[in-house]
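TL;DR need structure tokens for one chain.
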Amino acid sequence: MTSYVAAAPTAAGDTAWLLAAAALVLLMAPGLAFFYGGMVRSKSVLNMMMMVFGALAVVTVVWVAVGYSIAFGDDVVGGLFGNPAQYLFFDGLVDVGSVELPTILFAIFQGLFAVITVGLIAGAIADRTRFGTWLVFCVVWTVLVYAPVAHWIFDFSAGDHVGGWMANKLGALDFAGGTAVEINSGAAGLAAALVLGQRIGFGRDPMKPHNLTLVMIGAGLLWFGWFGFNAGSALGANGLAAVAFVNTLLAGCTGLLAWLAVERVRDGHATSFGAASGAVAGLVAITPSCGTVMPVGAMVVGIAAGATCALAVGLKYHFGYDDSLDVVGVHLVGGLVGTLLIGLLASADVTSVDGLLYGGGASQLGKQLVAAGVTLVFSFVMTAAIAWVLEKTMGFRIHEDHEASGVDLVIHAETAYDLHVAAGGRPHFGGHGPG
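>> reply
TL;DR here they are.
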């Protein structure tokens, strides 16, 4: 990601573009809610959507309060942690008279990345999670996991400001969130799913998506919003944003086609669910690399992610972890694919280095491997600890009877679909009838 603190003063057009990009990233939250909502069973759809909208509300407030300071404040612990008191409640970020890119806009743009990252974790623990405990999890995880990782990879040193170790000491490349967003959420989802345990009937009862129309609508909204996520990370209306935009489109397309090809060979048919999943897999993988590879590289990234993730989603049945909506298979695996392929496909025509296949040697690949591995381990361990403590203190998983009857009705006193036919005889209008 381009660093705001390292950027030169920008024109009004750049501010306008980042405002639009931030709105596109915000749209990804309801898009994710639709996508996930369609994937769960009908008795859990409202709870699933509420978990995403709850994350949107909670994470945004936490980010403004302290998250941004931890992620982008002056480093206090060797590139690991920003000063949590530096920008409390966005203090010092308001300057309505500045002609440069407003810092408060950059800050909230980054906060929406945190929203999506936390929202993604919800998919791994769908159908069995206490809503109140989930909201507490959102607070703790944002502060202890997301904000530090964002500091490591997104916060660049400039002048007197000292940023994170991955970006400045290691030299890893991550344009829009392969580590902080995708690997982070995927590893966290795996840890949380292991702590909560399998759903009742996992591996035995059918748990197919209840509404593929919602899935396709959600995938479309996510794809649309992803242009703000990736092209917006250029922090300006410029050539780099254009490259990121094109690469995002190409990877989504090739990811979709690769997933369908795997389905066709493996299962004999290509599905709408596979198309939606493949597009998302390609978008996940291009997130870290959209500002580092050429268009042909973006197509390779999409193909690799679509095919690999299509195979990886079945691993949960082999290893016995219940990742409800394939957060591990798509976001962790796809994030690893995109992050590591930077070491092979990066081009100096787009970014600062050449990857191995462009004559740059294996050095960048090693840096990408370190960044991916450290993020995975840190997120998994921290999330497992957080989820375990919440389970032991508040209770993270709902009671088995409530899970069986459906979390929508038990937790929210609502159902997504009122399909009951009224019983009884002729309707009662009062008096002697309608006339």
